[in-house]
Amino acid sequence: MMNMRLVRPARLVDINAVPELSGIAARADGGVTIGALTRHTDLVVSPVVHDRAALLATAAAHVGHRAIRNRGTLGGSLAHADPAAELPAALVALDATLVIEGPRGRRRLAIADFFVGLLTTALGADEILVAIDVPGPPHAGWGFAELARRAGDFAIAGVAGIARPDDSGRCRDARLVAFGAADRPVRLRSAEGALIGTTLSDEAITRAGAEAARECDPPDDVHASSEYRRHLVAVLTEDVARAARDRRAAAAGSPCR
Amino acid sequence: MSLITVRLTVNGRQTERAVSPRRSLADFLREDLELTGTHVGCEHGVCGACTVLVDGRTARSCLLFAAQLEGAAVTTVEGLTPAEGLSPLQTAFHECHALQCGFCTPGMLAAAHELLAENPTPTRDEIRDAIGGNLCMCTGYVNIVRAIELAGARIRGAR
Amino acid sequence: MTRWVGTSVPRKEDARLTTGRGLFLDDVGRPGLLHAAMLRSPHAHARIVAIDTTEAARLPGVHAVITGADAAASTAPIRPLIPTPVPLHDWCLAVDRVRYAGEPVAAVAAVDRATAEDALERIHVEYEPLPAVVDPETAIRPDAPLLYPDLGTNVLWHDVLSYGDVAGAFARADGVLAERFEIQRYASTPLETFGAIAEYDAGLDGYTFWTNDQRPGLTLGILAESLRVPQARLRLISPDVGGAFGNKRRPAYLLASALLARRARRPVKYLEDRIENLTALMHACNGVMDLELAYRKDGTVLALRVRDIADEGKNLVSPTQHNLIKLGNLVNGYRIGAVSYEAYSVLTTKCPSGANRGIGKPFMCFAVERAMALLARRLDVDPAELRLRNYVGPGDMPYTTPPGAQYDSGDYPATLRRALERFDYTTWREEQARGRRAGRLLGIGIATSVEPAGTNLASYELITGRRAASGSAEAAMVRMEPDGQVRASIGDPASGQGYETVIAQIVADELGLAPAHVHVERGFDSATTPWLYLSGNYSNKFSVTDVGAVIGAARKVRDKLLRIAAHRLEAAVPDLELADGEARVLGLPGRGLSFRELARTAYADVLGLPPGEEPGLEARHAHQNPLAQPVGPDRRVRSQLVFSNAAHCCLVEIDRRTGQVKILKHVVVHDCGRELNPAIVEGMVHGSTVHGLGAALLEEFRYDEGGQLLTATFMDYLKPTALDVPDIEVDHLEHPSPFTPLGAKGVGEGGAIPGPAAVANAVEDALAPFGVVVRSLPVTSERVWRWLRDAPPAP
């Protein structure tokens, strides 16, 4: 953005040298706390992230190419708030909480309240993102799917999601998040509703896809029309729900929920 | 604009320079250090020609400011080149005809170097993934993939 | 006694290029070098009302600012390659009017590029926007907004060229296949952008340019005319060139740099950034083609009628090039006896069109090969079989096509058969049928093409009615240095083709020494390299003209070496041979003289030369390919000279849910005559093919209705990466050309020509059950999804 003179800050502070902003730590509840400066590559290779937030690790592997993942940070991706970015959507699906610090001290904000519009967040001009808390216990049932024109490009559209069963094996809770489909990552609440209470049967999943298409309102741009994006959201919702179901089945008996 | 003094290691040599805050690492290497092996192909982080290693990991030198690299160790194609002759990767690029105009080659070598350092037995898919962020307009990538495969095999054999 | 030609000698260039020791334009430093930036029009079409540069000129670090008015005052208009019906004046910066978004209107030289860009923000231009004209069919209409009101039209050339009894053939035909095809704008986008350093010598009133311009011969003439200096006071030097593919030419940028250098009295570098490169350098013409094919029931194609509209953008330098080259390749590899070609070369308010790997031929091939695929489907004949029925046969060679092109050698049926075999065509057809029953969408695409090499500039007489330049030629120099090693140079600056290696191979064979002892000069230097107006790196011409120039010069040196050796050894020339770096008397082992010793004689001990022999061991030679001839009375002309050929087989799979196309396999069998260095040939086939695949699936310069380019970065203009293309499988036949010195033919453009057609045919084949016709590119997943969605339910 600066290379193209689209952004021209008068002052630029490099926070890379602040060690407290990096790092990946296991949480007592089975979740993980991730420093805002943690690189995408570290999310991909970290065993802790892999075990406790596999969706996030997978989403990170879809960001750009290796040289981009080596420099790009989780906090940077969130604060930039590109609506087609993978990591914000994954963290909405994981119901993360953001730790924000400014002159008035530290505050915690549910990620659902963080994205307010295109490239815009609830972060104050005098605040920085410090860390991201992903609550535990880990989800066994998760899925991630996107379609990009080329591998490594921003997705035309994508979906990240989790589905959590109750004791009877029915879906108790689901969070499906579309990216590239609005001005920010968006929950597909009707699609979630179509899954909740079901055994994630193929019929329920098809219904969820149809609901997802109905409820989203994606933009048009040079790479794809709104109409095509809407269709993709449906297809990818189905893929994610199916992946969540299959992963959950494969992990039956594990401590994940 | 006031200058910022930055101390870093480039190709193993301690370097200290005062740079303009907006000096990119690519321009710093090319203009201030005269390390012109690093090429600039798009200046928006897509083509990969300017890829160098920062603390052992690939990075786009067009997307970094020199002033950010206080204390960092930067390796360019010049640093990947032995004092005499060619490295195993360079030799493989030569033998497999993995370059034509050669403009992308320094960035390709950096990406391949990072891959082989982590995984000396990559599959062709892993190789393609590793260089997926480096554009080459001449070779169609076929011989680059072969060269990296060959270099990996040789590095393995040498160990 | 050939030893080196035909072998895959590893490249000499690699030692520097793999180690970061190449010298590309941006690596060239000059004392006091300034950096230039250009202010470009935000409007596609506007009148320039006023420009105020005062604030920019006052910015610290700025040394010179120029505008179109300065250019018009101090230079002559840029001479076009192909003159327009009414002379249209064009300078290096826009004067009065801008005609595409991105057209330069002012330029600044400053201590660094960033400062120069700061200065651009301080130039104030008042524009009066005019209506844009983006679509070429709109541009043709009489009420269209005009780029040049003096011209009275946007059409630079309109003509109908007809060869053979077209009307008769259509009347006799059993059927006619009529279809409309379109091609998008795309470009080869070399990874190094285009630019120049200009240095002005006030004492001599002369200029030196360092540039990656790929046609130095032509460019030097334009520079001299525009700068109003004799050519003798211009010098043009090309360093290593980071890919070119036809794109690297824009004399205007050299002129703007020269004006800045003259004004600043310091050398000035201008190098495009990528956005400038994509917005303003050179796109292949987009266009529309209406094609009609008259055929007999048995699949024999009798005649072809084409109406072709080439959208030139604001191209005043080389318009009609795309049309003319299509004309030369109209019938592809087929024995089609009658053709009619209606050409429109049309100006629009878009980036200038220009040379791009294959110029026009990818579209021509796309249209003809798509038509052949549709005809096969219509007649229910296998598409391979239909082609085999129509090919020019090996026994027909040399074969002259109706518009006058001469296909010199090759076996087109054997090329296709080999491709089918390598592809495992029968097996994949079976697999396709099986997959289709299981719901898989597999498609097989065949496309075959001819690939010309060498251009004959006389062909432009068809358009202008007069002959300015003609023929096909190149010049070279070979010099045995006083130490017995050899130096060679050529007027064709390489841009990745490995000339330093291949020329060393050729010279080594001619003189009898190893390529390691032949140093070939990097790039081009007009002060030392022999060159012609026709010199340059274009049109696949290496095999057609360059090889002959090198051989000619080497043979002159060889003959002289033999004469000196004969004199020194008191033997007759026919009794001598040159081998292993020495001249030897045949049959008398041990009796010989090393090249070093002979060179010592030639340069130092000149009294030891044969009587009357000129000292030195240097020769120049220019080779004119004899195939290039003037336009005939019937308007037939060999616009291009020798013809390689290729067959591509492409296997795609389509995801029916998303429309995504994946290329699973791509086989290329090509025949470029004698392969001088097979590894280099294969590398070019890979790269060229991937250019074709990119055009087929990804690449597109898209404009909105107002003439704004929507895909102006590498984030939006999508090039294929290693993850988007398969391992291209290559095989070859070798039918040497009887008309080139070593039997070699062109190879650089081959894959780029049939590649788009092969992919399109494969996609259409995969979608055959849905009745889809692919009429344009790129085939994006969204388009495929729409086709599938809109298809009538399968029976």
Structure description:
- The complex is a heterotrimer of chains A (257), B (159) and C (795).
- Chain A has 9 helices and 11 strands.
- Chain A folds into 2 domains: 21-134, Uridine Diphospho-n-acetylenolpyruvylglucosamine Reductase, domain 3 (2-Layer Sandwich), CATH 3.30.465.10; 142-250, CO dehydrogenase flavoprotein, C-terminal domain (Enolase-like, domain 1, 2-Layer Sandwich), CATH 3.30.390.
- A 5-stranded antiparallel β-sheet of chain A has the order 1-2-7-3-4. Chain A has a 4-stranded antiparallel β-sheet with strand order 8-9-10-11, sandwiched between helices.
- Chain A starts with 23 loop residues before the first strand and ends in a 7-residue tail after the last helix.
- In chain A, strand 10 and strand 11 (186-187) form a beta hairpin.
- Chain A is an alpha+beta fold and 257 residues long.
- The mean pLDDT of chain A is 95.
- Chain B has a 5-stranded mixed β-sheet, sandwiched between helices.
- Chain B is built from 5 helices and 5 strands; from the N terminus they run E-E-H-E-E-E-H-H-H-H.
- In chain B, a hairpin with a 2-residue loop joins strand 3 and strand 4 (57-60).
- Chain C is of the alpha+beta class and 795 residues long.
- The mean pLDDT of chain C is 96.
- In chain C, a hairpin with a 5-residue loop joins strand 19 and strand 20.
- Chains in contact: A-B, A-C, B-C.
- At the B-C interface, helix 2, helix 3, helix 4 and helix 5 of B face helix 1 and helix 19 of C.
